[in-house]
Structures
1.
Amino acid sequence: MFIETRGNDGQRPNKVPFSFAILNPSASFGGLYVPENLPKIDTTFLEKASKKSYKEITLDILRLFNIDIEEEVMQKAVALYDTFDDASEPTPLSQIEEDLFVNELYHGPTRAFKDMALQPFGYILSHLAQKLNEQYLILAATSGDTGPATLDTFANKPNIKVVCLYPDGGTSDVQRLQMTTQKSPNLKIIGIHGNFDDAQNALKSLLASPSFKETLNAKEIKLSAANSVNFGRIIFQIIYHIYAYVALLKKDKVELGKPFYTIIPSGNFGNALGAYYAKKMGLPIEKILIASNINNILTDLITTGVYDLRNRSLLQTTSPAMDILISSNVERVLFDKFGAARTKELMDSLKENKFYTLSKEELAQLQEDFEAVYSDDAFGKEQIKHYADQGYIMDPHTATCLKAYKELKAKPLPCVLCSTAEWTKFAPTMFNAIQQNSVKYSDKEALEGISKALHVKIPECISTLFNEPVIHNKIVEKESIEAEIFDFLNLTCKKECQ
Ligand SMILES: N[C@@H](CCOP(=O)(O)O)C(=O)O
């Protein structure tokens, strides 16, 4: 069963099953759903897992969670990993140093780690909508990767409509084209004048808005979300951390039960939360190392205990998917460590005062599991060049992890770095890094340049994007989002947006 991070308001049920939590992701007081208990895995589980495939392990873990989804549906959802580059190894582990391994999570249809969760999650959510004979509006806010993966998973799905919000100018060109060229009539993509935090704030306030829901309900439309505020995303984001350890075991790179480090490039903290839950379930993670770009609010939190939005504005970097200051899933860690009352206090303080401060003891508890560091674009480019020269291509988000590898890995243990996106989504930055220049390349030029220079193929799903017509070209002010959504749904707005 699932409970709420900020406690219960008396209006909602105290505990809900998985299906309820994913169909209704907004919990009391603007909080999030979390599992009441986490299942445990031990060395026997890991030993057995080392003889199994990714899909088999995924099903084992889903069964351990005992969620209210039929076995057949879980199997069909997990079978979607068969469409990845290598059906037998959807998340290959590449060794780039004696003790450093890259967990490549981007081999799905939209070339980012979001497919790992959104492919099966999309299947389960649309199955539930059909089974209940209900119509759903799914909202998504994106800084570049969640959007394309959400649209891909829900395209043409019955009973589902999707509205995806992205910051105009805040994603790479490829990421934008992956969204704006979508043809399926159940999808609407809206660019906003603002940044990712503005898009996610809009999503959260719509999820919590009684009048918005009332207008939808009048037309028998229910509301859910595809971001990692939805636990349906997180459950699948636990599994690839467990599988990374299994892959180390399979390759004889770790002794069963011995610890390893994991490094996570972080924005909305869903990936890091998945690692935290995996650690709590029993995966022997020594420490979760959090890598940020210069939007380093998570570095500050984990090193000083202060989460401070005052005197900060979001900066554009060459790792745009991490350009986030209001990081949703930190809340789930706070709840797990300090309980609902304290989480509500901290989150209320963030809303009202734009900051919160952990006590010394609380910070020490956070540091039991996490360490953090940040790097700038120049550092990322150096790493991209260094590894490209050695024959390994990593994207700018992945490159931020090298700082953590160099500075935070204190013990001689194997280290797994989560690689969140394919280089093809950020070609101009990649080409600048490789050529060591700052020429303004178009994405197409840069893709072709890299392909030629490094003898790599551009996947068809990326190369064909440039020939597709742009269908969604609307860029609106934040205040017009609600009206745009109603227009898409052919609804008349009830109150605020008139
Ligand atoms: N970095 C993300 C932002 C949204 O994160 P999510 O995990 O909550 O979906 C993106 O690329 O869109």
2.
Amino acid sequence: MSYKLTLRTLTLVSTLILALSLIPTLRRLTLLTHHIAPTMTYTREQQIALLAVQRAAILTKAVYKTSAKGTLSKSDASPVTVGDFGAQALIISALKHNFPDDEIVAEEEASDLRSNTALRDQIWAHVQETRLQDEDAEKELGGPIPSVERMVDVIDMGGSKGGASGRIWTIDPIDGTKGFLRGGQYAVCLALLVDGQVKVGVLGCPNLPVDDTARLEASIGQDQTDEGKGVLFSAIEGQGALSRPLTDGPLADGKKIAMRGVTDIAKAIFCESVEAGHSSHGDQAAIAKKLGITNASVRMDSQAKYGSIARGAGDLYLRLPVSQTYQEKIWDHAAGVVIVNEAGGKVTDVAGKPLDFSKGRTLADNKGVVAAPKDVHEQVLAAVKDVLGVKA
Ligand SMILES: Nc1ncnc2c1ncn2[C@@H]1O[C@H](COP(=O)(O)OS(=O)(=O)O)[C@@H](OP(=O)(O)O)[C@H]1O
Ligand SMILES: [Mg+2]
Ligand SMILES: [Mg+2]
Ligand SMILES: [Mg+2]
């Protein structure tokens, strides 16, 4: 009896000692898994985002070819079209199918469509018609939206207030709507933020050359043929930036892109908005002059500017504030910033702060944008501060 008791006590004590000795190993293991978590690959998110942007871009091209683009003027006097609403519906539907718990910050909302049923039906006709040729890919996106009512509800699912925590997608269904209407540059934009950091970005640019080596050309409108045009840019944080042709068929493999090495800043090509109301052409010209740049600026609409400098077709993108009160929207920059960063660039505001996507639907803590290859960013920023008189 006492022998048995002693044996049991001994077993208990040795188990306890063993358990205690394992604690440091377990702690190390927990720390290790903690370290592994942030290096998530986001490959699936990128794949869905590429397909969703591809499908939405197909819709926008079809809308461009119709004479009735259903343009409305929003409360800030900016335009929105059948293309913007339709692209937003298709992208949100794909995201909800694949990532139902994620939040969405999208540019458009559907209140006008609840009263304007003619416009609603025009959008519905395009949304119903738009399918990826690749049936498996179409299935991956959840297939068609089942009814017009559901389409209107889906458009309204992009009202998240954004912020610093969790997974938040941000959508600009057509960035550069004015460019789109003119037959100039526009971009279908989608990015994933995790805890306020951009992890994945995709830009679909139907009117940019497929050829990554084509020199940047001003493209404010007209003369459009689809020949040789259409590019999809993408990036995952820490994994580089890619481009591939934007077609109606299966996705091609992505090719790595990189910014051009600028050895002489005076030879840099810089691009800016078409609309003088969106960024100050005067200040931008003064900065270019300070840097000794004699090439004329290349004016183009939308985040096609970020994609173009990321693949070295241009070098600098300056967006200098015209108003003290305007706050840049996160959907106008998120995808472009991760693509430029991953291609070897650096993007800050005019004070040199990184763009902070954790502040809600707008970049409330930033003013303007200075995007340049890493090596020359400091030099460009110094000229920006000089011209604007921003304190270092
Ligand atoms: N006042 C002001 N200041 C700065 N930015 C503004 C302003 N007003 C609008 N917007 C946003 O500009 C987006 C268009 O992008 P760009 O300026 O690059 O293109 S453009 O050349 O001016 O068309 C445009 O995006 P879309 O509405 O998606 O086209 C707007 O979100
Ligand atoms: Mg708009
Ligand atoms: Mg926009
Ligand atoms: Mg837009």
